[in-house]
Amino acid sequence: MTDDSTAATAKPKRGKGGGGRRRKPASRGRKTLVVTAWTAASVIVLGGAGLGYVYFKLNGNIKGVDINAALGTDRPDDVDNGSQDILVLGSDSRSGDNSKYGKDEGGARSDTAMIVHVYKGHKKASVVSIPRDTLITRPECATGDGKTDPGGRRQMFNTAYEVGGPACAVKTVEKMSGIRMDHYVEVDFTGFKKLIDTLGGVDITTKKAINDDKSHLNLKPGSHTLNGEQALGLVRTRHGVGDGSDLGRIQLQQAFIKALINQVKDVGVFSNPKKLFDLADDATSAITTDSDLNDVKSLASFANGLKGIGAGDMKMVTLPIQYDPADPNRVLPLEKADQEVWDALRADQPIPKSATDKSAGDKGSAGDVVTSN
User: What is the rounded CA–CA span in Å between residue 54 and residue 258?
Assistant: First the structure.
């Protein structure tokens, strides 16, 4: 995640009803992690400069979705206060190259969801993870076949993407939070793996053994340089550590993100043009963005505005939840505490500790298993 508000390109404020919250853009360059976005954008800042071939090659990689056209005026108001909110999703599609991770049942879900709030000045950020199994009231959404899904109560959060793709995922988050998402970033399994391999792996230390046949990850306690397959296994594992829940997996993801951010800052790609281009090529191929970011120039400007945010500048929490008394495999939002989170972000303030004190999230031991080297 990055910083540098002066480098970000300001966008016009939108009026009530037609706009949401649009703030000064930043930049970005992860499947389950915000960091792939941050990496993509960071390397593009330099990778997009120079030969026209480089520009057009990278430009052609980026896939865009016009969220504004899909949602129209049914969005929160634009609040131009210098901050920025980005919805980052990791898709669990099992089609194509991702089929080795499970059976393709005809639809993808948002395996990982994070709201990244970049504060005014672009020097700090808060990241709110939304558990995929959270039961919510999902809004009505258009489907890909021209029909409309009515939504309803007690729907799992990750079904929003399955029902209506990125637009429904954004709409669901905006209805939950009352906050307009300025940008959307999605990363898939295969792109995530390739990016990590091109980066040269990510260094972590595990305090305990991690053995999870379902995510294909087996690590002994100690120092490791994870390749792409292992990194994907780590951010997908839920049975190898902690209580086996999605909440434990979120903690692992957050720990890995910090390790990845530290690695990107230290990798020295700027002195190696080929590696820089390869990273930019992988990163832009791995992501789908909103239409405001689906060209190299816009993505580079966005990235340049986030480059000063390091791992220590991010506050990472799980949306306050409790286990569902009717189904221990599901969780329910803690509405009052959730509102504290949304109110803080809307006011561009830090998330108060009181918001997460009674939450079942961020309480397990999984987050202490992995640290940066």
Answer: 29
